[in-house]
Amino acid sequence: MPAKDSPHSHRSARQPRQRVLGAAIIAVLLIAAGVIYVVTGNDHEPSAVASSTSAHPHDHHGDPAGTPAASAPAGGAAAVTAGGAGGVDVYAHARAGMFSPVVRNDPAYVYVPNLADGTVSVIDQKTMKIIDTFATGRQPQHVVPSWDLRTLWVNNNAGNSLSPIDPSTGRLAGPAVPVADPYNLYFTPDGRYAMVIAEANHDIDFRDPRTMELRHSLDVGTECAGVNHVDFAPDGSYAIATCEFAGRLVKVDLVHQTVVGYLDLGRQAAPQDIKIDPAGRVWYVADMNSDGVHLLNGDTFTRIGFVHTGPETHGLYPSRDGRFLYVANRGGQMESMSVPFPHAGQNGSVSVISFATRAVVANWPIPGGGTPDMGNVNADGTRLWLSGRRSNEVYVFDTGGTGGSDPSAGRLLTRIPVGHEPHGLTVWPQPGRYSLGHTGIMR
Q1: Which of 76, 152, 173, 414 is the most buried (most CB within 10 A)?
Q2: pTM of the model
Q3: Are strands 36-41 and 258-264 parallel, antiparallel or unpaired?
């Protein structure tokens, strides 16, 4: 989300096999018919309306089957395709201590992109001190772990490039790679594609996950103005992205790299981060204008509820034990309904939602005020690290025990001054077999 004074800084489980197959067949038939379902409605009571608008894939879309695949994740193909309502746990391979051999010896650092400075600050997790700061490119938005866990990509949004960091050393690994409008970066669950979220261009660019060579550019249109954050279905068949400036979500068929449809969250909505629950059933969507999270059924692409959390709701991160969702409330009040929806204020906090009850079970204030934004939990889940976007600092929260087992004991531990407008920081290393991107969506 853009800072108040930087209008362009945002750009500048297991499902039954029949159900998955049925959903895939329906999606293919809908796309073949050229139908996109657009759901419209007021803030919390959407209604369905059909539209004949179709997706607009660019002419250079190649055959996905013809693209060289990345090496399969540990556990084999079943790790990507298995899912279901009976016993699925999306985060089962990202529990405390479940390190891939390739990250086990990486130093425990936090990488903070300072958007207004064009730099990344490196913090030692143990001492909580900055040990290095280096230049990357203009307006670095997020630091993103690659699918194979061997590179941390700095998204230089206005610099139109990705800077590689070697996580084994904590230093830049080479020159920046030219990439158009890289606001955010994700990877398909099978590891075959990087997905560069080109917000200003209204595109999701499917690229080679290592070279970043363009394979196919998916135009999500002005219907998804402000495309920014993404999460993935347990079986890897589709993704859902947020459309901040349009107040919508977009569902993307990952097999065919096409738009399935849009879901309108309401006239005043400004959706931010998005995360799926461990059971793979309910999706949580942060809405900074509505001060809470929408609940979504991803398969039917319908809104099923709303949970109020706090002002300017922004980032979403599951606890290491998979029981809770940490919700960063950036703490501002909306000053204008004009894009990019400027907010002012520092009444920030972290709300903790129970995945079991879908209710807030704890709230962690920031004494004296703050603006928590993006980040992640550490490897054992005892600490939640968040950038303070308008406060030029990083917050470290005690989550209340190993894996975040007791949210009632959670509290702010410390705040660390960094550069100007810190945004999507990454805590590294993370448990998991592979990364789906952003600040570490691990599977």
Answers
A1: 152
A2: 0.82
A3: parallel
Token output for 159? 């610099």
List of residues 6+ apart from 53 with CB closer than 8 A: 36, 38, 221, 223
Locate the DSSP E strands across 191-267: 194-198, 203-207, 214-219, 227-232, 238-243, 248-253, 258-264
CB-hemisphere CA count at 13 Å for 47? 3
Alpha carbon of residue 328 to chain centroid: 13
Q: Where are the beta strands (DSSP E) in 136-237?
A: 140-145, 152-156, 161-166, 171-172, 177-178, 184-187, 194-198, 203-207, 214-219, 227-232
Q: What does the block give as tokens for 426?
A: 């990454």
CA distance 180 to 159: 9
Distance CA 220, CA 85 (A): 30
What end-to-end distance do the CA atoms of the chain give, in Å?
25
Determine the Cα–Cα distance for residues 266 and 135; give it in Å rounded to an integer: 40
CA-derived radius of gyration, the chain: 20
Spatial distance between the Cα atoms of 125 and 242, rounded to a whole number of angstroms: 31
**Cα angle: 212, vertex 217, 223; to 5 degrees:** 135
- Closest by alpha carbon to 31, among 62, 52, 15? 52
Per-residue pLDDT of the chain (443 residues; tens, 9 = 90+): 444 333 334 433 333 334 434 444 444 444 444 433 333 333 333 333 323 233 333 333 333 333 333 343 333 333 333 334 457 899 999 999 999 999 999 999 999 999 999 999 999 999 999 999 999 999 999 999 999 999 999 999 999 999 999 999 999 999 999 999 999 999 999 999 999 999 999 999 999 999 999 999 999 999 999 999 999 999 999 999 999 999 999 999 999 999 999 999 998 899 999 999 999 999 999 999 999 999 999 999 999 999 999 999 999 999 999 999 999 999 987 666 667 767 777 889 999 999 999 999 999 999 999 999 999 999 999 999 999 999 999 999 999 988 888 999 999 999 999 999 999 999 999 999 999 999 999 99
Alpha-carbon gap, residue 246 to 231, rounded angstroms: 18
